[in-house]
Specification:
Length: 503
């Protein structure tokens, strides 16, 4: 079998509708080039519009330093696409024969170490890979709409799929901020659509029987279980429902209900009357709003929810947190390599730890970078320094952290939208509980000093919420940087206070 797998620089998309467009937006945002292929030439305009539409919410998902955006190209020549890309994601209509035929054709043009994955919502991978060349590199990678904001992707192998292909695909999806969930055994509908379908069938019954409207049924989830589901699934939630003895008690108490037929599951007949009720119900819920408007609202709250969950390191929030860790680490490594100074080694110069640019959404009504973003960039530089001396997620989880207790910024020159920037950092002082840092934000085009930030951090035991000595190894690394930089002239802004000049 061909060696797995290539570094994915270019993602090929087969079919560029709703799901293809979502894959494109996600991949481009995280620095992967996309070559999109569809039989309909008019889909080029469509996919470009879809990517643009996704950008607003995506750009607010994380402020961690991202690689430069990928480039989007389009073709109607499926074979040419297959020859040029490192990974192919198929998103054509959900018809077994069509998918089988197109996958087989494309597989003969793609090198055998190019993974080919299908977005199918419920078809079985063994059926899909039947006529393919090198079927061991094929798997199902089932995403969720909107692909650019929901991290879940179900990975399912067929009879011929190799474990290496599943692992390699899993690494690629993790790289672009997703949560790959390996499904142990192929079944129609994988895992999530099995669960969604059960709920959906019950909804159709309740509407058909005139028990509730579509809006009432949505309320029954949105105001209750839906809130829990964002971070804990039915099983863990039911474990809590059993009180102190947990799941065992829960099953004892509610187990007998399983014998009462609460649910039907066998779907009702899709009569014209039922279709009308579903359509009228959802139109009433949309209340005159267009699909685009509702999508934007959905995207905005999906971003906000993930940012909240990140604080709790749970569900999609832990995926986001892990992604940000990698982005910060990579940015720090690139910046250190660029400046030729690895923290703690050659650090006689200010350390260049952050490379970034002024994101369009950081700009205020004057066209300049907004005040609060300066503090954010300095915070990122502080994090990069701390990470390089051993204050990482594991350190924080051990109940130790460095808290900001004082900050002072000066503003010296303008930074405009998209302006490339970098930060240099000096360790001005360190003792067993305190670190004194001085950051300079520079424009890359002329190295002009844009702003300075001076900060004192206190080392704390975050469980006891008290100042506490830092780890001796961390302190030693900070001391080393401090000593190496001690011969540099002190920046004029160090030790300044806020105030009008005294006459
Ligand atoms: N829509 C969802 O919520 C969702 C979620 C997860 C997975 N999926 C799965 O993703 C796949 C695509 O669904 P969608 O909603 O994006 O469909 P869609 O109808 O929006 O897009 C399908 C695209 O495939 C193109 N196409 C048709 N035949 C083709 C061919 N031979 N070669 C290349 N392109 C071709 C069409 O022109 C169209 O642009 C399906 O398998 C579906 O089950 C959909």
């Amino acid at each position: 079998m061909a060696k797995m797998m290539r570094q994915v620089k270019t993602l090929g998309l087969l079919g560029t509708g709703v799901i293809g467009g979502g894959w494109a937006a996600r991949a481009l945002h995280f620095g992967i080039d996309v070559l999109a292929a569809d039989v309909k030439p008019e889909m080029e305009a469509w996919i470009r519009g879809a990517v643009e539409n996704a950008e607003g919410a995506l750009s607010r998902l994380t402020f961690a330093p991202l690689p430069p955006k990928g480039k989007l190209s389009f073709t109607t020549d499926l074979a040419a696409m297959a020859r040029q890309v490192d990974f192919i994601q198929e998103n054509i209509p959900e018809q077994l024969e069509l998918k089988q035929r197109v996958l087989a054709e494309v597989s003969h043009h793609a090198a055998s170490d190019v993974i080919i994955a299908s977005s199918t919502s419920g078809l079985m991978p063994s059926d899909l890979q039947r006529d393919m060349a090198a079927p061991e590199r094929f798997l199902v990678a089932h995403p969720f709409n909107p692909v650019y904001l929901l991290p879940l992707v179900e990975l399912v192998g067929g009879n011929a799929t190799s474990p290496e292909a599943l692992d390699a695909a899993s690494r690629f999806f993790t790289e672009i901020g997703m949560h790959p969930l390996k499904v142990r055994r192929e079944i129609p509908g994988h895992l999530t659509d099995r669960l969604q379908e059960a709920l959906w069938r019950e909804i159709l019954h309740l509407v058909n029987d005139g028990v509730a409207t579509t809006g009432e049924l949505d309320d029954s989830i949105v105001y209750g279980p839906g809130l829990r589901w964002a971070a804990m699934g039915t099983n863990l939630i039911y474990h809590l429902a059993g009180g102190e003895p947990g799941m065992r008690h829960m099953l004892k108490q509610f187990g007998p209900c399983l014998k009462w037929p609460w649910t039907k599951l066998e779907a009702p007949e899709l009569t014209e009357q039922l279709i009308d009720r579903m359509v009228e119900g959802t139109q009433a819920q949309a209340n005159g709003r267009s699909i685009r408007e509702i999508e934007r609202l959905r995207d905005d709250y999906l971003v906000a929810i993930q940012q909240v969950l990140r604080q709790y390191n749970i569900g999609a929030g832990s995926t986001l947190r892990a992604l940000e860790e990698r982005l910060y680490e990579r940015n720090g490594a690139a910046a250190r390599a660029g400046s030729g100074a690895a923290a703690g080694e050659d650090c006689a110069q200010p350390l260049r730890l952050i490379e970034t640019h002024v994101r369009p959404e950081w700009v205020d009504y004057n066209g300049h970078m907004t005040d609060s973003r300066y503090l954010q960039v300095f915070g990122d530089a502080t994090d990069a320094l701390y990470r390089s001396v051993g204050v990482d997620d594991a350190y924080r989880q051990s109940g130790r952290a460095l808290y900001a207790v004082e900050s002072h910024m000066t503003h010296n020159a303008e930074a405009q939208a998209l302006e490339p920037l970098y930060v240099t950092t000096r360790v001005v002082g360190v003792d067993e509980k305190r670190v004194h840092l001085f950051h300079c934000l520079h424009r890359r085009r002329d190295d002009a000093l844009v702003a300075t930030g001076e900060h004192i951090y206190l080392h704390v035991n975050s469980t006891a919420k008290k100042a506490a000595p830092m780890d001796p190894a961390v302190r030693a690394k900070l001391e080393k940087i401090h000593t190496a930089q001690a011969a540099l002239p002190a920046p004029v802004q160090v030790g300044r206070h806020v105030g009008m000049p005294r006459s």
